[in-house]
Design a protein that fits this description.
Blueprint lengths: L27 H30 L7 H14 L4 H8 L4 H7 L4 H16 L4
Helix pairs in contact: 2-3, 3-4
Keywords: DNA recombination, DNA-binding
Pfam family, one: Phage_integrase
Protein name: Tyr recombinase domain-containing protein
Length: 125
């Protein structure tokens, strides 16, 4: 039986005056991704400026937006909000992400201990 033949490899695209320079015709995404990165960076800078202004007006200590998201997630859980609702509020695709954002606080730990004691010992502590 004869060995299967392979089609010849495609020749690399030739640069034309319109595509010569930093970006080749084979990688148009590079130009877009660099532009998108610049836009995202500018947007992040603007968000930071607005955030800092809000904190100053509210006389609240300086924290990152990211830290505030963790705090919001924890407060939602402490208030008894279902984790799936917190997921939607925070805009997370996966509930596992929301779980990573939440932190177990001392009051929640105390409450868990108070609920567990009667189950373990048969009487309230």
């Amino acid at each position: 039986m004869a060995a299967p033949t392979r089609a010849p490899a495609a020749a690399p695209s030739q640069a034309t005056p319109a595509t010569s320079g930093l970006v080749s015709r084979t990688a148009p995404a590079t130009r877009t991704s660099v532009r998108d990165q610049a836009r995202r960076s500018h947007r992040r800078t603007e968000v930071r400026k607005v955030w800092k202004s809000i904190l100053k007006q509210a006389s609240v200590r300086d924290v990152r937006v990211h830290d505030a998201r963790h705090t919001a997630a924890t407060l939602l859980i402490e208030q008894g909000v279902n984790i799936r609702v917190g997921q939607r509020v925070l805009g997370h695709t996966r509930v596992a992400t929301t779980e990573r954002y939440t932190h177990v606080s001392t009051p929640l730990m105390r409450d868990a201990g108070q609920r567990l004691a009667p189950a373990l010992w048969g009487h309230p502590q």
